Amino acid sequence: MTMLQIHNKIFEPYISEQKLNEAVKKLTNDIAVDCKNEIPLFLGVLNGSFMFCSDLLKAYQNPCEISFIKLASYEKTQSTGQVKELIGINEDLTNRTVIVVEDIIDTGNTLEKIVALLKKTSAKKIKIATLFLKPTVYNKDIKIDYIGIEIPNKFILGYGMDYDGLGRNLSEVYVLKDS
Ligand SMILES: O=P(O)(O)OC[C@H]1O[C@H](OP(=O)(O)OP(=O)(O)O)[C@H](O)[C@@H]1O
Ligand SMILES: Nc1nc2[nH]cnc2c(=O)[nH]1
């Protein structure tokens, strides 16, 4: 097993590229079935979801659009509890089906903020897709429509997700050792 060190933290391989591909395919199929009569607008949440968004859209065979929103709440491996809006929603969402695309939902603080922003628009439907969910941590009432992989309360990185800015380029997911 190839360990990885970033600063003083040790990470070990956790979820293979193949498992990630399977999860992305399944999510894509589920979304395509639900959206067969519409053109969804995927709304990726930067930075973490860029790689997931890319693979999701490449796998999505029907007409669709993409845009991004940028929020941040994490410093190192801890949620600060405060979510900052760095890039807002610029599109006209009137009558659109918007699918929020998250790499991971942990406390749900980020999601709550995004959904609050979307509710102020005239979007027809707001749906949520996440590659990872920590069900034991998530404590909001917002329904998550599409879930890739559920994980315990551990800190992961790779496939878009970082530790202190590093590790986003890894094509598989690692977990913080002994977390
Ligand atoms: O459910 P929560 O506890 O809010 O955590 C989930 C959020 O944390 C990460 O983003 P982060 O704030 O680290 O910004 P980044 O995507 O730029 O890394 C991740 O991409 C989610 O958006
Ligand atoms: N990189 C990373 N960011 C997160 N944001 C919320 N949970 C996590 C996590 O486990 N890893």
Automatic annotation (TrEMBL):
Q: Where is the Phosphoribosyltransferase domain?
A: 19-163
Q: Which Pfam family would be a valid example here?
A: Pribosyltran
Q: Which UniProt keywords apply?
A: Cytoplasm, Glycosyltransferase, Magnesium, Metal-binding, Nucleotide-binding, Purine salvage, Transferase
| Cofactor(s) this protein cannot do without | Mg(2+)
Q: What class of enzyme is it?
A: transferase
A GO MF annotation of the entry reads: nucleotide binding
**InterPro entries recorded:** HGPRT, Hxn_phspho_trans, PRTase-like, PRTase_dom
Query: What's in the GO CC field?
Result: cytosol
Q: In which pathway does it act?
A: Purine metabolism; IMP biosynthesis via salvage pathway; IMP from hypoxanthine: step 1/1
Catalysed reactions listed for this entry: IMP + diphosphate = hypoxanthine + 5-phospho-alpha-D-ribose 1-diphosphate; GMP + diphosphate = guanine + 5-phospho-alpha-D-ribose 1-diphosphate
Q: Return the EC number.
A: 2.4.2.8
Which BP terms does GO give this entry?
Answer: GMP salvage; guanine salvage; hypoxanthine metabolic process; IMP salvage; purine ribonucleoside salvage
The places in or outside the cell where this protein is found are: Cytoplasm
Concerning PANTHER family, the annotation shows: HYPOXANTHINE PHOSPHORIBOSYLTRANSFERASE, HYPOXANTHINE-GUANINE PHOSPHORIBOSYLTRANSFERASE
- What protein family is recorded? Belongs to the purine/pyrimidine phosphoribosyltransferase family.
User: Which named protein is this?
Assistant: Hypoxanthine phosphoribosyltransferase
